[in-house]
Amino acid sequence: MKKINYLVFIFFCTSIFSYAQEESSFDSIYYYMENKEYDEALVQINYNLNNSNEISIHDINTLLFNKGFIFEMQDKLDSAIWCYEEVIASDSMHIPSLNSLGMLYGDFELYNEAYSIFYNLIEIDSNLIVPYSNIVYYKGLEGNYEDAIQIANEALLLDTDTITTALLLNNLSFAQYNLGLLKQAFKSATKSLKLLDKNAYAYRNLGLILLAQKKNEKACEKFNISFELGGTEDINFLIDENCNN
Predict the structure, then answer these.
(1) Could you give all domains of the chain from N- to C-terminal order, each with its CATH number?
(2) Comparing C-alpha atoms, which of 222, 146, 215 is closest to residue 184?
(3) CA separation (Å) from 91 to 5, 58, 65, 85, 241?
(4) Contacts of 35-43 spanning 24+ positions with Cβ under 8 A
(5) What pLDDT band is residue 27 in, cutting at 50, 70 and 90?
(6) pLDDT of residue 25
(7) Are 1 and 75 in contact (CB under 8 A)?
(8) Confidence at residue 89, expressed as pLDDT on a 0 to 100 scale
(9) Angular region, 36: left φ>0, alpha ψ -120 to 50, beta rest
């Protein structure tokens, strides 16, 4: 999974896990997942699924979703897709599985399929910021920066002060940067950091913006902070190319 998407996925799934934990008694599974002991979690999930006649459809779907999440963390993407599709076949409005499947399609550059799912999510709940953020992200990857900015601005009318808004602002700042709107991009990235301070993507974007403004020393400071926070897929390249001379 792409590191930027991983951020979106983790924040989205954290709320789902909390919800599911209230709804079920799978405490050991969530313990293992929170501690990234995924093999142990899979043993517990499979045990429960093998005794699925004793649990509800809701809990079966929760288990399958969590199984898909684990497969994503293990880069077993075909298996993750199977899990999400199984849940959606049972519950066509299962928001976390739809979102996760859409992100996988996006990572495979199946953009039309991904957008179809994200817009379906917006129809299910128009107040969700995550699908908007995902659309903006993938529009940016496609180079459709004008569309990305328009969609991001629409989403910001819904919410302006949550963690998922911070991720949306990351994607907006990247689109603005690519169109040469450096002041706007800087403002968006700075707003993102106010909502989510340990934000490797925002620091990377700030570095790119400062680099474009010929402020190389300050850019490298931002790149190094991004690296210390876990970085982005291109952070090592950016540091090697601009900061190690």
Answers:
(1) 1-128 (1.25.40.10), 148-245 (1.25.40.10)
(2) 146
(3) 24, 9, 12, 10, 48
(4) 36/73, 38/70, 38/73, 38/74, 41/66, 41/70, 42/67, 42/70
(5) confident
(6) 56
(7) yes
(8) 97
(9) left
